[in-house]
Amino acid sequence: MSGTIMTDQMQHVALTTYCEGAPKLSDFAVETKDAPTPNEGQFRVRHVFNSVDPGTRSRLSGGDSYAAALPLGKPIDGFSVGVVDMSENPEYPVGTKVFCAGGWRTHTIQTGKGFIDKVPEIPGIPLSLWIGVLGVPGLTAWFGLKTVAKFKAGDRVLVTSAAGPVGATAGQLAKASGAEQVIGIAGSDTKCKWLVEEAGFDHAINYKTTPDLDAAIREAMPKGVDVLFDNVGNAMINRVMPMMRLNGRICVSGQVADYNLTPEETPGIVNTKPFITHRINMQGLVVFDFAREFPIALNEMATLIGKGELKLKEERFEGIDKMPEAFCGLFRGENFGRRVVKVGDE
Predict the structure, then answer these.
(1) 281 and 146 within one domain
(2) Is 65 part of a structural domain of the chain?
(3) I want to staple 232 with a disulfide (CB 3.0 to 4.6 A). Which of 205, 236, 279, 319 is the partner?
(4) What's the number of domains the chain is made of?
């Protein structure tokens, strides 16, 4: 055997109650069990950082969405970056750093198949970024903007939930690729200030304090919107639809305002006339549809980070027991940037 067990036990966070409305701490429980050991062809990853993602909420109510509902008692799925600490797979020897779909756990058994890859040795790139701007959030921004929204230089871009990891990355990628205008919508003056002064957005709107959000968007974008990169939900799409320019594109990246609603409570999209009059295209994405192209996107984003052209905001929590708290806070608007939970040592 090519490695040694670092600990006899592991921990994970399980779903104990289906979420009704916004998730609560009581919906989750931290459990301790014997650490797994790999069989032939497998290896064990000791997690260092785990992520919490708003899209996970869609699996926690007992009904299927774009992914199957999570059964009660099962560990929560998610993304992790860590170190191989035990291996029966020569392709992944002990000490290899990987990012993977590890979930809310301290350890997982992997085979090298599915969403997993070795962390490239790039100086100056912190390990946590591989589940942030160089993980699913950044990849979602990249392919949502460039492939789904078919961004082109000169576009006027509106990004909602713009201070989140997906929105902030999408807006900066648009600026770096020649957007004529990038406007962000966020939920505090602090976030708006960061978007303009650090992330390079042309303007940011605080939706919580703006008396008339429609008027504020129209004032900021008097020539209209070519690309709406939406992370919020149907009510926002309804609001912006009449402001779209001819041949405008809407990327439905996330629905953070709708995840906690039942189907009956979710607003419908009613401003549909512009689909005809303005030839608007609206499309969503599941980022894994573009898995074969991940290396291209990751290389280009890592280059932008190295040049200081892609700014990052990260919030860290310590300990796997903090994962439910970090997750629930996403739906109270408390997060500012990518939330990761440190569950082990590098």
Answers:
(1) yes
(2) yes
(3) 236
(4) 2
